[in-house]
Structures are given as C-alpha cells and as structure tokens.
Amino acid sequence: MPATLRLGASLRILIGGQDEFTVEPGRSVRDTLVSLGIKPELVAMVSVKDEMQTKDYVIQEGDTVRLLAVVGGG
Fold first, then answer.
1. Edge-to-edge strands of the sheet including 51-53?
2. Percent residues over pLDDT 70 in the chain
3. Is residue 55 a contact partner of residue 30, using CB atoms and an 8 Å limit?
4. Burial class of residue 4, CB neighbours in 10 A (0-12, 13-18, 19+)
5. Is 12:36 a contact under the CB 8 Å cutoff?
6. Virtual torsion, Cα 2, 44, 34, 66, nearest 10 deg
7. Predicted pLDDT at 32
8. In this structure, what DSSP letter does residue 50 have?
9. 4: which strand partners?
10. Interatomic CA distance for residues 42 and 55, integer angstroms
11. Are 72 and 13 in contact (CB under 8 A)?
C-alpha cells in the first residue's frame, strides 16, 4: 500500500503547483524529497498522524506525510 506526501502552500509554489504525491513506503522523508527533486532544507516541518517527525522518519504503508516549508519575511 502506498503512502501520501502532502505539501503546504509555500512548497507547492516552489515546485510548480503539485500538492500531493503518492510515494512508496520504506524510505526516509529526506530520501523521498530528494527523489522528487525537492531540497530537504526547504522543509521546516514534517507531520505524520498529527505528530511531529524528523526528515529521517521512514515512511510506512498508508501514512499521510504533511510537509510545511521554511517561511521567511520581515
């Protein structure tokens, strides 16, 4: 069973508008980001089942991984 990677609005804009990816479990969030062409340093927050995780979290079957970007401003 695949997993789902959901991107927050800021990340969507940075990668061209796609907000959701179906990904295979068994890889870390970091490795999955790299394989999708997303720079891991752009991701500030990883959430799985409403719990904060690191980018080293290994994605499990059926997970929905939510990602939020680093936001700057002044």
1. 20-23, 3-7, 64-69, 43-48, 51-53
2. 96
3. yes
4. middle
5. no
6. 10
7. 95
8. T
9. 22, 64
10. 11
11. no
CA gap 42, 68 in Å, rounded: 8
**Hey, what are 57's tokens?**
């979290």
Query: What end-to-end distance do the CA atoms of the chain give, in Å?
Result: 43
- E strand map for 1-74: 3-7, 20-23, 43-48, 51-53, 64-69
Q: Is the predicted pLDDT of residue 61 greater than 90, yes or no?
A: yes
Beta bridge partners of 47: 52, 66
Q: In this structure, what token pair is assigned to residue 53?
A: 């995780």
- DSSP code of residue 58: B
* More confidently predicted of 7 and 11: 7
* Cα separations in angstroms, 59 against 14, 47, 62, 71, 74: 23, 11, 9, 24, 35
Q: What is the CATH number assigned to the segment(s) 3-69?
A: 3.10.20.30
Average pLDDT, the chain: 91
